[in-house]
Write a structure and sequence with these properties.
The chain is mainly alpha-helical. The chain contains three helices and no strands. Helix 1 runs antiparallel to helix 2 (28-49), helix 1 (2-25) packs parallel to helix 3 and helix 2 (28-49) runs antiparallel to helix 3. The longest helix is centred in the last third of the chain and has 41 residues, at 55-95.
């Protein structure tokens, strides 16, 4: 059980690294691969790793694995808003005489 949970942590960190690499390199394939890694890890944690745990431990595990998901979601959203704002400024500058 402990080894299985450790493997889930490693896969979550791998997914985060892929995601950050995809944001830095602006590579869609890396970002999509990170979503796949996060999704598989999340399913594994909630379907397999939490089977024998009590309710409090399940809640703590949910918080631990939910935090990286929220952090990457925030990073992606912030990057998209910055990019859309920059594009909007470019379009506005082109349309002005």
């Amino acid at each position: 059980m402990k080894w299985s949970l450790s493997l889930s942590v490693v896969w979550a960190m791998f997914g985060a690294a892929l995601f950050m690499g995809g944001l830095q390199a602006e590579t869609r394939l890396l970002r999509l691969t990170s979503v796949l890694a996060f999704g598989a890890t999340t399913l594994k944690v909630f379907l397999l790793d939490t089977q024998g745990l009590d309710t409090v431990a399940q809640m703590i595990l949910s918080l631990i694995f939910g935090s990286p998901l929220l952090a990457t979601s925030h990073a992606y959203r912030r990057r998209v808003v910055v990019r859309l704002t920059a594009l909007s400024k470019i379009k506005t500058a082109r349309s002005e005489p």
